[in-house]
Amino acid sequence: MRKFSAVLMCLMLFGSLLAACGGKNNAEVKTNEGAVTNSGGNNATQAEGTTEDITQKKITLKIHYPLPDETTLRAQEDDKIARFQEKYPNVTIVKDDWKYDINEIGVKMASNEAPTFYNTWATEANFLVERGWVADITDLWNNWEYKDEINPVLQNQFIVDGKVFGVTQNGYVTSTVVNKKLLDAKSVTAPALDWTWDDMYNTAKGVADPKKGISGIAPMGKGNEAGWNWTNFLFEAGGDIETNVDGKVTAAFNTEAGVKALDFYKKLRWEANAIPQDWALGWGDAVSSFQQGRTAMVIAGAFDVVQAALNEGGMKPEDVIVYPMPAAEKGGKHYGILGGNYLVVNPNATKDEQEMAFRYITFDYFTDDALKSVEDTIQARKAEGKYYIPTPLEYFSEDSDYATKVKAIYDKYDNVYKYDPNLFTLLEGKPEAQFGTQDFYATMSNVVQESFSKKGTDSKKQLDTAAQYVQENYFDKIEAK
């Protein structure tokens, strides 16, 4: 799961084939967003100064490969491998389904067992760069003909001190997904998209029916995702996770904004009685609760929730509405955490391996083959009686020619989920912090759990204690750059 603020408009019109994670999602938070392609372009040129023909060299790539249960993604990757090796018969492909884990990457690098390239999240850029676990691909990037058509909001997350260290796959802005059918059953009017915390509170309270096991909202309550969910409200209240002045990282969430956000969580729990009785829900638990019609609202990347609700839960598109995160008050910002998925190159790989990895990563970017795959997937979903869910943010810029081509394909089919156009003027993504983010999330998860289990806790005291813990155990150990 990982900055700056940026209004993110119209990008949710652009969808894709692959799921990636996630942010989360984050180290503990799943964020499998769809992507038009998980691969990249055959359009990379050789880095300046290269005199030998890389296509004549025997090169082995250990590639990032989908997990065993991701059968569709594996089939797509196998197809890509075949097409790549047809163009580059000199390359041997070794499949590796290791999924990035912040607790394993150091061992992988030290033992030289990491893939030639691997997946990671927006939060990990500075962490990986500082430890030397990601290659500088600036020269390869600068010689790539499509670099100016990449989505800058996403790509900038892996540009550190002017150097490029990863290639964006896709991204998301954390949203609130609403089950309108549950609202209708309790005669609760759906709020406007430009909603506030009060609107969320009233809606959650009005829909909640504890005797029937239905909650008004299901905030995540265990794992790092509990802290991740809560951080959206910190941002909406005007707060931040940390400050970074001259390389000194300082905890900044134990402020008035933090207190306001934590108090709101407690209102949902103790005043509205709107959260699940068994509130210790992880990412999958919360999404499943929505899919099964046991909660009216869930906070996550929109793609994952809509995908589960329509294609696994049998819900109808008209009953699933994607909202931005609510503003703390009328006229406020609808901040949602901006996350993304990236492919980065192993710095232990040879220069030839790094260049060929870059070619593989970008092999399908901006290609007609990828467009055909999108349309084939939509048609296959239609034949199965299922919906195609576009991902919120794609690797390509919204004003690129490629984006226009993708949208034209979507417009041809009635089984492509359509987001409310008014949503795009309200979404505002705020990137996660670049230092110790997962440690912060884990610490705040404990605070959220205490707030849900003990009535009458002191929010300022809780946050001061958490801030001191994060500062002493994590932030103070960050080396000044």
From TrEMBL:
The protein's matches in PROSITE patterns, at most eight in alphabetical order, are given as: PROKAR_LIPOPROTEIN
Where is the signal peptide, in residue numbers?
A: 1-19
Keywords, comma-separated and alphabetical: Signal
Pfam families named among the record's database cross-references: SBP_bac_1
The name of this protein is Carbohydrate ABC transporter substrate-binding protein (CUT1 family)
The organism encoding this protein is: Fontibacillus phaseoli
